[in-house]
């Protein structure tokens, strides 16, 4: 056990985490050149394309250092705020963390919040200044930032370039010398924490765990403490480039478990594995993952509903944080109300449905969960505009707030303040990390950052801003349900819950957008936005005046028929609302209001 | 080329399965360039190969500049009894804008000339929806048509296709695109003007005085069998459509070598249904819904009841004795309505 080191990597997107991980795998001969693939750990296509790690993974390296054999377990962490709970569990499974900072960029908000998580768990932090070879590198300034944050000695900061292979040996020796060996007692009752799981279509769910105490053996009867479910450990092992089965995994080590679990929901990150006949206490910090953003997902082709259901079920096998229930929309037919960890998670689910399952879907206006406080004080959860009660039947509405940390250059403070105030935010704090870099703290309604907040933030700061946030509970807000009507028929899929002060602007812009997206039809179309029965905005799509070609003799008939058939096919994807045909883009229009 | 046409006539004699030939049509391109001998030769061939009705309609498409008085006399003598003249307009400026070979005088002269030669059945083409033209042009053309006592008018809406001279002009901003509103109001003017003068609006783009409707074109819309001869010609045997190759040289080579087979456009039942809807809707008679039911088992009322009722309330269609007919406003949207009533072909 004294020769085991468990560590994770904390880094901002693009700061070089995956490249550094690759170098470590090469330096320890865990992978051969031939097996080397760029960004080896990110093995989903989508991950590689987006350059981020969506799901965390783990890999074990063997390393001989000064004549002694060491086992290094690298536990990868997802790098996006949507997945902060998973990050916290990965951190809890480690004794140390590599803090990778881009020498040209400096520390970003997400890195800081993960760093704080690591410090809370008493992890030994090894700061690494990456991309030191870049001409734009600012090693002194960024080192100052790091020293200010973690209070280390400037000499502790390792200079590296993962791309060029610089500093890799120093990092490996720091992992062995500075990160403490794990504690725990192999003879105690088994206490292992699940930090990840992966769906294997042939073998069921693979559970990744860290053993804190005791020993798990092949064939053991085990129990997951929080779900209360029992399993037999059909196979256990360690995670090299490929899985290697073992007879036992003891305190301090990291491994995988296969026991024929079919449903990802049964495997909750943070849950504790113990023995049925000699149970332990649960590992602290377990939470049921709660969705933060809700949206409807509908098949573009209404006849593909069952296919969509099957795809969602398969998706859920390896994405336990995705929750959904069937939902019906007058405009879109049968679909699902889905809960996501955040906007990125929502985009990923949508993209995976399209790429892995070849589904084309419409996603409706994303919403957060509102609370409708009844006159008797009880609370109803509102996950969709359609669930919004009549105002006179409730006491008030509450909406979730977050505390956001934004790190940016000093020159963009003004822009960002304006943005946050426009998003109903309140500034709480402003700290200069260096003379030029500032951390701003705001309290904002979550619903305001669900939309284009991050894009706007990036634009207003020319890319020099990073964002992290944590939920801070519910607050009373004057929210209203805004409906869109086409020729007097309500389009349920376009309704949204918005703050009263913003409803007029929202309605006006949405009507304008829809006017452009809805093609002219045989009748005039009134596009209206309303709160209750009060119309607050209106646009008109003029009627089509003339749609007839003069000539239709002999061979023209076939040509013309084919043309019209083709057009009709193109319109098959349109949705009928009353007598109005609405193209799919219209349902996405809300996402692109600017 | 004429030899090749005769070869094709011989080779495809069986296509019409001994049906009585009611109409003959020389059209597409500029058949008025044919010599009288060539026309006579082709007609003789047709008479030799097929049984032709007692009083057939024999049309020739002609440009005014080809129609000298001698030519007109000869054509009538050769047996042509209907002329479809590509006048388009009598306006000199518009004629040059459209790049037509004839001038106003030729356009004005050819109609009385044809009548003098013996032609009573004369159709002219009339163009509309010209961007930026003076408002009076169309009215003045329509008045001349009445004054010349023309019995049949085919209307053409200017369409600007990419890759054509107009297309390039439009791209460069030299001309404005055809405005939908202008096209609609021109079309309404034509309908009102011609109907006021006793014309029957018997198909979307065709107007005729009583008894002077084109029998040939009507048979297309009624789905009758026809044989088309020559490059790019199409034929219909009431099951499928057949297309000849467009390229003249390749066509002639095929005819000379005997290695000739028109391309077949296989029509599915859905295609037949959609063509029935498309052509029916364009005619004054409208879609014979009972016949659609008899032939294909399609009940428009059942499938599109709400839709049709909506159109009816909005004054776009009327239903008369089982016939679904377009109103004037509906005629402006005929393509859209046809598309809406189409059956979707299976993939």
What does this structure look like?
The complex is a heterodimer of chains A (594) and B (347). Chain A has 594 residues and is α+β, with helices and mostly antiparallel strands. Chain A is built from 14 helices and 33 strands. Chain A has an 8-stranded antiparallel β-sheet with strand order 11-10-16-7-8-15-12-13. Chain A has a 6-stranded mixed β-sheet with strand order 2-3-1-4-5-6, with helices on both faces. In chain A, strands 21, 22, 23, 24, 25 and 26 form a 6-stranded antiparallel β-sheet that branches. In chain A, a hairpin with a 2-residue loop joins strand 32 and strand 33 (580-582). The radius of gyration of chain A is 27 Å and the shape is globular. Chain A starts with a strand and ends in a 6-residue tail after the last helix. Chain B has 347 residues and is of the alpha/beta class. Chain B folds into 2 domains: 20-221, Aldolase class I (TIM Barrel, Alpha-Beta Barrel); 270-341, Arc Repressor Mutant, subunit A. Chain B has helices spanning 2-11, 36-49, 69-78, 92-97, 104-117, 136-147, 165-172, 180-196, 215-221, 248-257, 269-282, 289-296, 300-313, 328-331, 334-341, and strands at residues 21-26, 52-62, 82-88, 121-128, 152-157, 200-203, 206-208, 234-236, 241-243, 263-265, 287-288, 317-320, 323-326. In chain B, the strands form 3 sheets. Chain B has a 7-stranded mixed β-sheet. A 3-stranded antiparallel β-sheet of chain B has the order 8-9-10, with no helix packed on it. In chain B, strands 11-13-12 form a 3-stranded antiparallel β-sheet. In chain B, helix 1 (2-11) packs parallel to helix 2, helix 1 crosses helix 10 (248-257) and helix 3 (69-78) runs parallel beside helix 5. Chain B is globular. The mean pLDDT of chain B is 92. The interface between A and B is large, with 25 and 47 residues.
């Amino acid at each position: 056990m004294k020769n085991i080191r468990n560590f994770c990597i904390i880094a901002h997107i693009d700061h070089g985490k995956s490249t550094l991980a690759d170098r470590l795998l090469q330096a320890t001969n865990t992978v051969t050149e031939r097996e080397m693939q760029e960004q080896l750990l990110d093995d989903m296509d989508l991950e590689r394309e987006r350059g981020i790690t969506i799901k965390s993974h783990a890999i074990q390296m063997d390393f001989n250092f000064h004549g002694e054999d060491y086992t290094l377990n690298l536990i990868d962490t997802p790098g996006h705020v949507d997945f902060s709970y998973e990050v916290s569990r990965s951190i809890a499974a480690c004794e140390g963390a590599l803090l990778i900072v881009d020498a040209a960029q400096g520390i970003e908000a997400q890195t800081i919040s993960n760093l704080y998580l690591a410090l809370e768990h008493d992890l030994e932090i090894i700061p690494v200044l990456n991309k030191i070879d870049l001409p734009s590198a600012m090693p002194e300034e960024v080192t100052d930032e790091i020293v200010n944050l973690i209070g280390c000695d400037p000499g502790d900061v390792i200079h590296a370039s993962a791309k060029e292979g610089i500093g890799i040996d120093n990092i490996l020796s720091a992992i062995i010398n500075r990160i403490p060996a794990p504690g725990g007692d192999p003879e105690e009752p088994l206490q292992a924490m699940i930090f990840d799981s992966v769906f294997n279509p042939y073998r069921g769910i693979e559970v990744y765990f860290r053993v804190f105490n005791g020993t798990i053996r092949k064939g053991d009867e085990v129990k997951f403490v929080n779900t209360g479910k029992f399993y037999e450990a059909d196979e256990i092992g360690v995670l090299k480039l490929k899985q290697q089965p073992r007879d036992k995994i003891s305190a301090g080590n990291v491994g995988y478990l296969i026991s024929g679990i079919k449903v990802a929901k049964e495997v909750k990150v943070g849950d504790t594995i113990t023995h049925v006949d000699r149970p332990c206490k649960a590992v602290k910090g377990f939470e049921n993952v709660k969705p933060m953003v809700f949206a409807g997902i509908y098949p573009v082709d209404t006849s593909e509903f069952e296919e969509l259901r099957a795809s969602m079920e398969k998706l859920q096998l390896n994405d336990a944080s995705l929750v959904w229930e069937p939902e019906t929309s007058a405009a879109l037919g049968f679909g699902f109300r889905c809960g996501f960890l955040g906007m990125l998670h929502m985009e990923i689910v949508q993209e995976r449905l399209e790429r892995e399952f070849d589904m084309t879907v419409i996603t409706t206006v994303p919403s957060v969960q509102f609370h409708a406080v009844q006159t008797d004080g009880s609370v109803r959860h509102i996950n969709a505009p359609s669930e919004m009660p009549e105002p006179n039947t409730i006491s008030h509405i509450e909406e979730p707030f977050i505390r956001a940390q934004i790190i940016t250059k000093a020159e963009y403070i003004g822009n960002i303040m304006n943005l946050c105030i426009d998003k109903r935010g309140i500034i709480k704090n402003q700290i200069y990390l260096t003379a030029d870099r500032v951390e701003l703290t705001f309290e904002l309604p979550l619903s305001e950052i669900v939309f284009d907040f991050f894009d706007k933030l990036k634009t207003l700061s020319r890319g020099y801003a990073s964002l992290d946030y944590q939920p801070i509970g519910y607050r009373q807000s004057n929210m209203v349900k805004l409906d869109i009507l086409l020729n007097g028929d309500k389009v349920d899929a376009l309704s949204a819950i918005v703050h009263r002060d913003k409803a007029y602007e929202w309605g006006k812009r949405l009507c304008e957008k829809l006017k452009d997206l809805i093609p002219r039809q045989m009748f005039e179309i009134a596009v209206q936005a309303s709160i209750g029965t009060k119309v607050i905005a209106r646009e008109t799509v003029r009627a089509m005046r003339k749609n007839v070609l003069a000539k239709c003799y002999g061979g023209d008939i076939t040509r013309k028929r084919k043309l019209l058939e083709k057009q009709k096919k193109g319109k098959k994807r349109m949705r009928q609302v009353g007598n109005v045909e609405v193209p799919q883009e219209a349902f996405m229009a809300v996402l692109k209001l600017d | 080329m004429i030899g090749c046409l005769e070869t094709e006539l011989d080779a495809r004699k069986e296509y019409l399965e001994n049906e009585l030939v009611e109409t003959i049509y020389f059209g597409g391109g500029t058949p008025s360039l044919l010599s009288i001998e060539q026309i006579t030769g082709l007609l003789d061939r047709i008479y030799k190969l097929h049984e032709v009705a007692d009083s057939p309609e024999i049309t020739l498409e002609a440009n005014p500049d080809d129609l000298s008085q001698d030519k007109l006399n000869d054509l009538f003598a050769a047996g042509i009894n209907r002329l479809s003249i590509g006048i388009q307009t009598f306006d000199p400026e518009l004629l040059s804008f459209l790049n037509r070979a004839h001038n106003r005088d030729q356009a004005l002269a050819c109609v009385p000339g044809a009548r003098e030669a013996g032609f009573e059945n004369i159709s002219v083409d009339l163009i509309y929806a010209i961007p930026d033209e003076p408002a009076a042009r169309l009215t003045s053309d329509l008045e001349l048509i009445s004054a010349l006592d023309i019995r049949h008018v085919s209307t053409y809406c200017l369409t600007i296709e990419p890759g054509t001279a107009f297309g390039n002009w439009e791209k460069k901003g030299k001309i404005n695109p055809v405005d939908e509103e202008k096209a609609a109001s021109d079309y309404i003017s034509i309908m009102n003007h011609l109907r006021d003068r006793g014309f029957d609006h018997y198909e979307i783009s065709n107007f005729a005085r009583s008894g002077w409707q084109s029998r040939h074109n009507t048979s297309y819309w009624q789905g009758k069998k026809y044989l088309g001869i020559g490059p790019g010609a199409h034929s219909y045997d009431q099951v499928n459509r057949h297309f000849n190759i467009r390229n003249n040289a390749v066509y002639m080579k095929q005819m000379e070598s005997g290695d000739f087979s028109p391309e077949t456009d296989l029509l599915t039942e859905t295609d037949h249904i959609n063509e029935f809807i498309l052509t029916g809707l364009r005619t004054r008679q409208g879609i014979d819904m009972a016949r659609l039911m008899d032939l294909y088992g399609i009940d428009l009322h059942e499938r599109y009841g709400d839709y049709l009722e909506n159109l009816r309330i909005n004054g776009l269609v009327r239903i008369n004795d089982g016939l679904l007919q377009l109103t004037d406003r509906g005629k402006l949207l005929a393509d859209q309505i046809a598309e809406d009533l189409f059956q979707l072909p299976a993939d």
